[in-house]
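Escalated from tier 1: adenosine-5'-diphosphate holo job.
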Amino acid sequence: MTASAATEPRRKSASLISGATGDWEVVIGLEVHAQVNSRAKLFSGASTEFGSAPNSNVSLVDAAMPGMLPVINRECVAQAVRTGLGLKAGINLVSVFDRKNYFYPDLPQGYQISQYKQPIVGEGEVEIDVDGDVIRVGIERLHLEQDAGKSIHDQSPEHSFVDLNRSGVALMEIVSRPDLRSAREAQAYVTKLRTILRYLGTCDGDMEKGNLRADVNVSVRKPGAPFGTRCEIKNVNSIRFIGQAVETEARRQIAIIEDGGRIDQETRLFDPQKGETRSMRSKEEAHDYRYFPDPDLLPLELEQSWVDELAKGLPELPDAKRARFMDAYGLSPYDAAVLVAERESADYFEAVVAGGKAGPVDGKLAANWVINELFGRLNKEGLEIGKSPVSAGQIGAIVGLITSGTISGKIAKDLFEIVWAEGGDPVTIVETRGMKQVTDTGALEKAVDDIIAKNPDKVEQVKAKPTMLGWFVGQVMKASGGKANPQAVNDILKAKLGI
Ligand code: ADP
Ligand code: MG
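Tier 2 regenerated the structure:
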């Protein structure tokens, strides 16, 4: 690929790293391995369940017994196609499985079945949003391949164990173009990709369980210069580590070049404890995988009508949902992005908007409540939205009570606390505990008169400085135990003070 760097507009999130010889730009491309969400493996019927007893989910195919033949799992293919469609990518109706040959104790076949020259999915893109810049990250390809087993090395040096439960589980390798220009952009890309996969239901995206991991390719250059030589950092397994790996690797490369050296293309490992990358193997030691088409498998041929059917079954994806939330509910881009980051929170929000018994409520106010009150509280307690003690219907009812003027925003927060701790119907709680807002003008006028009578000095001040009015509103609110309607108080005060 040639770099069209000179014409490439700079974006805010493409932060430069300053070195002794001036500013440097980092260039990143990612190869993400995503475990396909499927009950059975790519070429066998064995279970993919996580955390089973070692070697309990192993068929004769997975153990590479002589004479066993792979049979492709239709659901894994469908998941790859769905993912391709979700990445706005071209689906290749003919693709080929190849053998990638290498020796490792946890690879009993002596080769991994993968796709090389003819992958199932071609070019696509992922849109990310960093600091208000919308960046289109190119997807080069997506291919299907088998995962390997797992070697476990015991404390005592004589013992190593092999667990083949993961052997043969389907992976999608999603390769991006070198379109990313900072650690934050790389993190935003993986976060967004994970969100899309979760919406599609094609991968759990659980990095702690290792079902989403990234090979991070990093190079540096002077802005405007052609791409530099890249190093590939293998198997980085958290969003935070991806950011750290990019930063430390870029600085390592800058130091070498500024010292008069040059970068050798190599494969490196990120050590999170030390916060540095170290060499795993150089280009000279790179494997020759001797790829060739797997003679046990015919080329994979898909029918366009089947692909079309899968396309029809796709859910609304995060970008479309975000645009709809902004359009239909008047949400800010930021609020809409927060709500659509997880499908559960987007669904929860829409259930809040549907409201309680009194019907639909204002979307903006609903979004405020979900993001500030509910998410704030869930975070504090370390709870997921699925475990929220307050249901969407309950928040909808609280928002409805505010909108109708039945309770003030302040009382609504108390009400939220009660519902969080005790449950119950917000409308009934407001009735039985006398939490209704006082809009009765007579009662409010009396309260206002009291405050005015007690504070003649403040009355003089407010006439010169009308912003002091807030102090009076606050006093009346306090006297009413938060139940006075602030707007009504404001109006009465203005009339009585003549401002
Ligand atoms: P290979 O075939 O050797 O694996 P690819 O062209 O497939 O190489 O690239 C692998 C990954 O490396 C891709 O994600 C790509 O975006 C990224 N990449 C390629 N060139 C560079 C570069 N100069 N700097 C950073 N990343 C790069
Ligand atoms: Mg590659």
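The mean pLDDT is 93.
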